[in-house]
Protein backbone atom coordinates (compact mmCIF):
# COMPACT_ATOMS: atom_id res chain seq x y z
CA UNK A 1 0.00 0.00 0.00
CA UNK A 2 1.31 3.45 -0.92
CA UNK A 3 2.48 5.64 1.92
CA UNK A 4 -0.23 7.67 3.62
CA UNK A 5 0.63 11.29 4.36
CA UNK A 6 -0.36 13.14 7.53
CA UNK A 7 -0.11 16.79 8.50
CA UNK A 8 -0.98 18.45 11.79
CA UNK A 9 -1.94 22.04 11.01
CA UNK A 10 0.11 24.42 13.20
CA UNK A 11 -2.31 27.27 12.39
CA UNK A 12 -5.31 25.57 13.98
CA UNK A 13 -6.63 28.61 15.77
CA UNK A 14 -9.11 31.22 14.68
CA UNK A 15 -11.20 34.21 15.70
CA UNK A 16 -14.92 33.71 15.18
CA UNK A 17 -15.70 36.27 12.47
CA UNK A 18 -19.05 37.87 13.33
CA UNK A 19 -20.07 37.99 9.67
CA UNK A 20 -19.91 34.21 9.39
CA UNK A 21 -21.44 33.68 12.83
CA UNK A 22 -24.41 35.94 12.14
CA UNK A 23 -24.97 34.40 8.72
CA UNK A 24 -25.17 30.93 10.25
CA UNK A 25 -27.84 32.07 12.73
CA UNK A 26 -30.24 32.66 9.84
CA UNK A 27 -32.77 29.90 9.18
CA UNK A 28 -33.26 30.91 5.53
CA UNK A 29 -31.12 28.10 4.11
CA UNK A 30 -32.81 25.30 6.03
CA UNK A 31 -36.22 26.83 5.27
CA UNK A 32 -35.33 26.91 1.56
CA UNK A 33 -34.27 23.27 1.43
CA UNK A 34 -37.40 22.14 3.24
CA UNK A 35 -39.49 23.75 0.47
CA UNK A 36 -37.94 21.56 -2.23
CA UNK A 37 -39.99 18.48 -3.14
CA UNK A 38 -38.48 15.34 -1.64
CA UNK A 39 -36.72 17.01 1.27
CA UNK A 40 -36.01 15.00 4.36
CA UNK A 41 -33.02 15.11 6.71
CA UNK A 42 -30.27 12.68 5.82
CA UNK A 43 -29.97 9.97 8.49
CA UNK A 44 -27.44 10.05 11.30
CA UNK A 45 -26.42 6.46 11.93
CA UNK A 46 -24.37 4.84 14.66
CA UNK A 47 -21.85 2.49 13.06
CA UNK A 48 -22.04 -0.28 15.63
CA UNK A 49 -20.51 -3.06 13.53
CA UNK A 50 -17.73 -0.95 12.02
CA UNK A 51 -17.08 0.63 15.41
CA UNK A 52 -16.72 -2.82 16.95
CA UNK A 53 -14.29 -3.92 14.22
CA UNK A 54 -12.19 -0.80 14.83
CA UNK A 55 -12.47 -0.96 18.65
CA UNK A 56 -14.40 2.31 18.69
CA UNK A 57 -17.58 2.84 20.69
CA UNK A 58 -18.61 6.28 19.42
CA UNK A 59 -18.59 6.22 15.62
CA UNK A 60 -21.35 7.86 13.56
CA UNK A 61 -22.03 8.68 9.92
CA UNK A 62 -24.22 11.35 8.34
CA UNK A 63 -25.38 9.44 5.27
CA UNK A 64 -26.00 11.70 2.25
CA UNK A 65 -26.41 8.86 -0.24
CA UNK A 66 -30.18 9.38 -0.55
CA UNK A 67 -30.36 13.18 -0.55
CA UNK A 68 -33.18 14.35 -2.88
CA UNK A 69 -32.84 11.13 -4.85
CA UNK A 70 -29.65 12.33 -6.55
CA UNK A 71 -27.32 10.35 -4.28
CA UNK A 72 -25.16 13.14 -2.90
CA UNK A 73 -25.04 16.18 -0.64
CA UNK A 74 -24.29 18.39 -3.65
CA UNK A 75 -27.97 19.14 -4.19
CA UNK A 76 -27.92 21.29 -1.06
CA UNK A 77 -25.26 23.65 -2.36
CA UNK A 78 -26.33 23.77 -6.00
CA UNK A 79 -29.99 24.46 -5.26
CA UNK A 80 -29.33 27.24 -2.77
CA UNK A 81 -26.73 28.85 -5.02
CA UNK A 82 -29.10 28.84 -8.00
CA UNK A 83 -31.79 30.39 -5.81
CA UNK A 84 -29.37 33.16 -4.80
CA UNK A 85 -28.33 33.74 -8.44
CA UNK A 86 -31.96 34.14 -9.47
CA UNK A 87 -32.73 36.40 -6.50
CA UNK A 88 -29.88 38.67 -7.59
CA UNK A 89 -31.02 38.67 -11.24
CA UNK A 90 -34.57 39.54 -10.14
CA UNK A 91 -33.43 42.35 -7.86
CA UNK A 92 -31.24 43.86 -10.58
CA UNK A 93 -34.05 43.75 -13.16
CA UNK A 94 -37.11 44.65 -11.07
CA UNK A 95 -35.69 46.12 -7.84
CA UNK A 96 -38.07 43.96 -5.79
CA UNK A 97 -37.61 40.87 -3.64
CA UNK A 98 -37.86 37.31 -4.96
CA UNK A 99 -39.46 34.63 -2.75
CA UNK A 100 -38.73 30.91 -2.56
CA UNK A 101 -42.21 30.08 -3.87
CA UNK A 102 -41.53 32.18 -6.99
CA UNK A 103 -39.05 29.58 -8.24
CA UNK A 104 -41.98 27.33 -9.15
CA UNK A 105 -44.38 30.03 -10.31
CA UNK A 106 -44.96 31.79 -13.67
CA UNK A 107 -43.18 34.83 -12.20
CA UNK A 108 -39.84 33.20 -12.97
CA UNK A 109 -40.61 33.46 -16.70
CA UNK A 110 -40.42 37.24 -16.43
CA UNK A 111 -36.63 36.88 -16.32
CA UNK A 112 -36.64 35.08 -19.65
CA UNK A 113 -34.74 31.83 -20.33
CA UNK A 114 -31.86 31.17 -17.92
CA UNK A 115 -28.92 28.95 -18.80
CA UNK A 116 -26.99 27.65 -15.80
CA UNK A 117 -23.57 26.12 -16.27
CA UNK A 118 -21.03 24.29 -14.13
CA UNK A 119 -17.80 22.29 -14.17
CA UNK A 120 -17.86 18.93 -12.44
CA UNK A 121 -16.35 15.52 -11.86
CA UNK A 122 -19.90 14.22 -11.48
CA UNK A 123 -21.99 15.01 -8.41
CA UNK A 124 -22.01 18.82 -8.56
CA UNK A 125 -22.99 18.75 -12.22
CA UNK A 126 -25.80 16.31 -11.54
CA UNK A 127 -27.03 18.52 -8.69
CA UNK A 128 -27.03 21.64 -10.89
CA UNK A 129 -28.83 19.74 -13.67
CA UNK A 130 -31.39 18.30 -11.25
CA UNK A 131 -32.39 21.64 -9.77
CA UNK A 132 -32.29 23.39 -13.14
CA UNK A 133 -34.77 20.81 -14.41
CA UNK A 134 -37.02 21.43 -11.38
CA UNK A 135 -37.27 25.13 -12.24
CA UNK A 136 -37.61 24.37 -15.98
CA UNK A 137 -34.42 26.06 -17.18
CA UNK A 138 -31.41 24.86 -19.21
CA UNK A 139 -28.11 23.48 -17.86
CA UNK A 140 -24.76 23.03 -19.63
CA UNK A 141 -22.23 20.93 -17.71
CA UNK A 142 -18.48 20.62 -18.37
CA UNK A 143 -16.81 17.31 -17.47
CA UNK A 144 -13.40 15.70 -17.97
CA UNK A 145 -13.44 13.51 -21.08
CA UNK A 146 -12.35 10.50 -18.99
CA UNK A 147 -15.39 10.72 -16.65
CA UNK A 148 -17.30 7.50 -16.01
CA UNK A 149 -20.00 6.94 -18.62
CA UNK A 150 -22.59 6.39 -15.89
CA UNK A 151 -21.90 9.84 -14.43
CA UNK A 152 -22.20 11.51 -17.83
CA UNK A 153 -25.49 9.71 -18.56
CA UNK A 154 -26.96 10.55 -15.15
CA UNK A 155 -26.44 14.25 -15.89
CA UNK A 156 -27.88 13.97 -19.39
CA UNK A 157 -30.91 12.18 -17.92
CA UNK A 158 -31.63 15.37 -15.95
CA UNK A 159 -31.98 17.18 -19.28
CA UNK A 160 -28.58 18.90 -19.29
CA UNK A 161 -26.14 19.23 -22.16
CA UNK A 162 -22.73 17.75 -21.31
CA UNK A 163 -19.54 19.20 -22.80
CA UNK A 164 -16.55 16.85 -22.48
CA UNK A 165 -13.18 18.55 -21.97
CA UNK A 166 -9.84 16.96 -22.77
CA UNK A 167 -8.25 17.59 -19.38
CA UNK A 168 -8.81 17.72 -15.63
CA UNK A 169 -11.58 19.22 -13.52
CA UNK A 170 -9.54 22.41 -13.22
CA UNK A 171 -9.44 22.76 -17.01
CA UNK A 172 -13.23 22.26 -17.05
CA UNK A 173 -13.58 25.16 -14.60
CA UNK A 174 -11.61 27.46 -16.91
CA UNK A 175 -13.51 26.40 -20.04
CA UNK A 176 -16.88 26.76 -18.30
CA UNK A 177 -15.99 30.28 -17.15
CA UNK A 178 -14.78 31.33 -20.60
CA UNK A 179 -17.84 30.02 -22.43
CA UNK A 180 -20.22 31.53 -19.87
CA UNK A 181 -18.72 34.98 -20.37
CA UNK A 182 -19.06 34.65 -24.15
CA UNK A 183 -22.65 33.37 -24.08
CA UNK A 184 -24.28 35.11 -21.11
CA UNK A 185 -24.65 32.00 -18.96
CA UNK A 186 -24.87 31.90 -15.17
CA UNK A 187 -21.99 29.94 -13.62
CA UNK A 188 -22.84 27.75 -10.63
CA UNK A 189 -19.33 27.11 -9.33
CA UNK A 190 -18.39 25.17 -6.23
CA UNK A 191 -14.85 26.56 -6.37
CA UNK A 192 -13.96 30.22 -5.86
CA UNK A 193 -11.46 32.05 -8.05
CA UNK A 194 -10.68 35.74 -8.69
CA UNK A 195 -13.82 37.40 -9.97
CA UNK A 196 -16.08 34.68 -8.58
CA UNK A 197 -15.95 34.73 -4.78
CA UNK A 198 -19.52 35.53 -3.69
CA UNK A 199 -21.45 32.78 -5.46
CA UNK A 200 -19.36 29.79 -4.24
CA UNK A 201 -19.97 31.03 -0.69
CA UNK A 202 -23.69 30.40 -1.27
CA UNK A 203 -22.85 26.80 -2.12
CA UNK A 204 -20.86 26.39 1.10
CA UNK A 205 -23.71 27.90 3.11
CA UNK A 206 -26.11 25.55 1.31
CA UNK A 207 -24.07 22.58 2.50
CA UNK A 208 -24.49 23.68 6.13
CA UNK A 209 -28.06 22.34 6.09
CA UNK A 210 -26.73 18.81 6.53
CA UNK A 211 -24.92 19.89 9.68
CA UNK A 212 -27.79 21.99 11.01
CA UNK A 213 -29.95 18.88 10.82
CA UNK A 214 -27.73 17.50 13.58
CA UNK A 215 -29.31 20.00 15.99
CA UNK A 216 -32.49 17.94 15.94
CA UNK A 217 -30.89 14.52 15.48
CA UNK A 218 -28.55 14.20 18.42
CA UNK A 219 -26.99 15.84 21.44
CA UNK A 220 -23.64 14.14 20.83
CA UNK A 221 -20.56 16.29 21.30
CA UNK A 222 -18.25 15.03 18.58
CA UNK A 223 -14.52 15.17 19.21
CA UNK A 224 -13.76 14.86 15.50
CA UNK A 225 -15.61 15.32 12.23
CA UNK A 226 -13.91 13.65 9.26
CA UNK A 227 -14.74 15.10 5.84
CA UNK A 228 -13.48 14.79 2.26
CA UNK A 229 -11.67 17.82 0.92
CA UNK A 230 -11.84 18.19 -2.89
CA UNK A 231 -11.64 21.96 -3.41
CA UNK A 232 -12.71 22.33 0.22
CA UNK A 233 -16.41 23.19 0.07
CA UNK A 234 -17.92 20.61 2.42
CA UNK A 235 -14.99 20.96 4.83
CA UNK A 236 -15.56 24.72 4.86
CA UNK A 237 -19.23 24.10 5.66
CA UNK A 238 -18.13 21.93 8.60
CA UNK A 239 -15.94 24.81 9.79
CA UNK A 240 -18.86 27.24 9.53
CA UNK A 241 -21.08 24.96 11.57
CA UNK A 242 -18.79 23.54 14.24
CA UNK A 243 -16.32 26.38 14.70
CA UNK A 244 -18.19 29.57 13.87
CA UNK A 245 -21.82 28.68 14.62
CA UNK A 246 -21.62 26.13 17.44
CA UNK A 247 -18.27 27.38 18.75
CA UNK A 248 -17.57 23.78 19.68
CA UNK A 249 -14.27 22.02 20.30
CA UNK A 250 -14.94 19.56 17.45
CA UNK A 251 -11.75 19.14 15.41
CA UNK A 252 -11.90 18.92 11.62
CA UNK A 253 -9.94 16.21 9.83
CA UNK A 254 -9.84 16.49 6.02
CA UNK A 255 -9.25 13.54 3.70
CA UNK A 256 -7.78 13.70 0.19
CA UNK A 257 -6.30 11.27 -2.34
CA UNK A 258 -2.51 11.04 -2.38
CA UNK A 259 -2.61 12.12 -6.02
CA UNK A 260 -4.86 15.15 -5.40
CA UNK A 261 -3.95 16.66 -2.05
CA UNK A 262 -4.25 20.39 -2.78
CA UNK A 263 -5.60 21.24 0.69
CA UNK A 264 -2.71 19.47 2.41
CA UNK A 265 -0.17 21.15 0.12
CA UNK A 266 -1.79 24.51 0.91
CA UNK A 267 -1.73 23.89 4.67
CA UNK A 268 1.95 22.93 4.48
CA UNK A 269 2.84 25.99 2.37
CA UNK A 270 0.54 28.35 4.27
CA UNK A 271 -0.91 29.60 0.98
CA UNK A 272 -3.18 28.14 -1.75
CA UNK A 273 -1.09 25.56 -3.59
CA UNK A 274 -1.43 23.00 -6.35
CA UNK A 275 -1.57 19.25 -5.84
CA UNK A 276 1.69 17.51 -6.68
CA UNK A 277 0.06 14.30 -7.91
CA UNK A 278 -1.51 13.23 -11.19
CA UNK A 279 -5.16 13.76 -10.15
CA UNK A 280 -5.96 10.16 -11.06
CA UNK A 281 -7.55 8.71 -7.93
CA UNK A 282 -10.62 6.48 -8.10
CA UNK A 283 -12.12 9.14 -5.79
CA UNK A 284 -13.23 11.06 -8.87
CA UNK A 285 -14.98 13.84 -7.00
CA UNK A 286 -11.78 14.62 -5.09
CA UNK A 287 -9.45 14.85 -8.11
CA UNK A 288 -8.96 18.59 -7.65
CA UNK A 289 -5.70 20.34 -8.39
CA UNK A 290 -6.22 23.64 -6.58
CA UNK A 291 -8.35 24.69 -3.59
CA UNK A 292 -11.28 27.06 -3.76
CA UNK A 293 -9.89 30.40 -2.58
CA UNK A 294 -12.95 30.98 -0.43
CA UNK A 295 -12.79 27.53 1.17
CA UNK A 296 -9.11 28.10 1.85
CA UNK A 297 -9.89 31.24 3.84
CA UNK A 298 -12.28 29.24 6.01
CA UNK A 299 -10.01 26.20 6.35
CA UNK A 300 -6.51 27.56 6.82
CA UNK A 301 -7.04 28.18 10.54
CA UNK A 302 -9.75 25.60 11.27
CA UNK A 303 -8.47 22.29 9.88
CA UNK A 304 -6.85 20.36 12.69
CA UNK A 305 -5.42 17.40 10.80
CA UNK A 306 -4.95 16.54 7.14
CA UNK A 307 -4.68 13.04 5.67
CA UNK A 308 -3.82 12.04 2.10
CA UNK A 309 -4.62 8.40 1.36
CA UNK A 310 -3.99 5.79 -1.35
CA UNK A 311 -7.03 4.35 -3.11
CA UNK A 312 -6.75 0.97 -1.40
CA UNK A 313 -8.30 2.35 1.78
CA UNK A 314 -11.39 3.51 -0.13
CA UNK A 315 -12.05 0.04 -1.50
CA UNK A 316 -11.87 -1.31 2.04
CA UNK A 317 -14.17 1.43 3.32
CA UNK A 318 -16.82 0.76 0.64
CA UNK A 319 -16.88 -2.89 1.70
CA UNK A 320 -17.19 -1.95 5.38
CA UNK A 321 -20.13 0.32 4.60
CA UNK A 322 -21.76 -2.35 2.43
CA UNK A 323 -21.60 -4.87 5.26
CA UNK A 324 -23.26 -2.25 7.49
CA UNK A 325 -26.07 -1.82 4.95
CA UNK A 326 -24.85 1.59 3.72
CA UNK A 327 -24.27 2.39 0.05
CA UNK A 328 -21.20 4.55 -0.52
CA UNK A 329 -19.32 5.51 -3.66
CA UNK A 330 -15.59 6.07 -4.05
CA UNK A 331 -15.57 9.70 -2.95
CA UNK A 332 -18.36 9.10 -0.45
CA UNK A 333 -16.35 6.50 1.44
CA UNK A 334 -13.25 8.68 1.73
CA UNK A 335 -13.94 9.84 5.30
CA UNK A 336 -14.14 6.26 6.57
CA UNK A 337 -11.11 5.42 4.42
CA UNK A 338 -9.18 8.21 6.13
CA UNK A 339 -10.17 6.87 9.53
CA UNK A 340 -8.93 3.40 8.53
CA UNK A 341 -5.61 4.95 7.47
CA UNK A 342 -5.26 6.75 10.80
CA UNK A 343 -5.99 3.59 12.79
CA UNK A 344 -3.51 1.64 10.65
CA UNK A 345 -0.81 4.03 11.87
CA UNK A 346 -0.90 3.37 15.60
CA UNK A 347 1.35 6.28 16.54
CA UNK A 348 -1.01 8.70 14.78
CA UNK A 349 -4.10 7.04 16.28
CA UNK A 350 -2.59 7.33 19.77
CA UNK A 351 -1.62 10.97 19.23
CA UNK A 352 -5.19 11.82 18.22
CA UNK A 353 -6.68 9.48 20.85
CA UNK A 354 -9.07 8.53 18.04
CA UNK A 355 -10.18 5.17 19.46
CA UNK A 356 -11.45 6.82 22.63
CA UNK A 357 -13.12 9.71 20.83
CA UNK A 358 -16.57 10.44 19.44
CA UNK A 359 -16.17 10.62 15.67
CA UNK A 360 -18.59 11.81 12.97
CA UNK A 361 -18.00 10.69 9.39
CA UNK A 362 -19.66 12.01 6.24
CA UNK A 363 -20.79 9.61 3.54
CA UNK A 364 -21.09 12.18 0.80
CA UNK A 365 -22.39 10.03 -2.07
CA UNK A 366 -24.07 6.77 -2.93
CA UNK A 367 -23.53 4.45 -5.88
CA UNK A 368 -22.74 6.99 -8.60
CA UNK A 369 -20.60 4.59 -10.68
CA UNK A 370 -22.55 1.30 -10.67
CA UNK A 371 -20.10 -0.79 -12.71
CA UNK A 372 -17.15 0.10 -10.48
CA UNK A 373 -19.21 -0.28 -7.30
CA UNK A 374 -20.35 -3.76 -8.34
CA UNK A 375 -16.76 -4.80 -9.02
CA UNK A 376 -15.86 -3.91 -5.42
CA UNK A 377 -18.69 -5.53 -3.48
CA UNK A 378 -19.19 -8.70 -5.52
Question: Could you please describe the fold and organization of this structure?
Answer:
The chain has 378 residues and is α/β, with parallel strands linked by helices. The protein has 16 helices and eleven strands. The strands form two sheets. The protein has a seven-stranded mixed β-sheet, sandwiched between helices. α1 crosses α10, α4 packs across α5 and α5 runs parallel beside α6. The two termini are 22 Å apart. The mean pLDDT is 93.
SS element count, helices = 16
Low-confidence stretches: none
Q: How would a crystallographer describe the biggest sheet? A: 7 strands, mixed
Strand order of the largest sheet: 1-10-9-8-11-3-2
- Please tell me what the overall shape is: globular
Strand content: 5-15%
> Based on helices, strands and strand pairing, what is the structural class?
alpha/beta
Measured distance between first and last alpha carbons: 22 Å
Order of helices and strands: EHHEHEHEHEHEHEHHEHEHHEHHHEH
Question: How much helical structure, as a percent, in the residues?
Answer: 40-55%
Indicate the mean pLDDT.
93
Query: How much is the radius of gyration in Å?
Result: 19 Å
DSSP strand tally = 11
Amino acid sequence: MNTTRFFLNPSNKFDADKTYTNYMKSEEVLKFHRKIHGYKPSPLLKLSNIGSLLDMSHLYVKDESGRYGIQSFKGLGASYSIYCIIKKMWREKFNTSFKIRDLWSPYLNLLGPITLTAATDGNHGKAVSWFTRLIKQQAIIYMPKESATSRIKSIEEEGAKVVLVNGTYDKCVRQCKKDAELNGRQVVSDTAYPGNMEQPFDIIVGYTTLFKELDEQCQELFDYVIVPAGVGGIAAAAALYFNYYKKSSTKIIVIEPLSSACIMESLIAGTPSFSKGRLDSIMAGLNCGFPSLLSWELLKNTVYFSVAIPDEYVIQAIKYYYDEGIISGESGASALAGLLAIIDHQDIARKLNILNSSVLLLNTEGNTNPAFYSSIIR
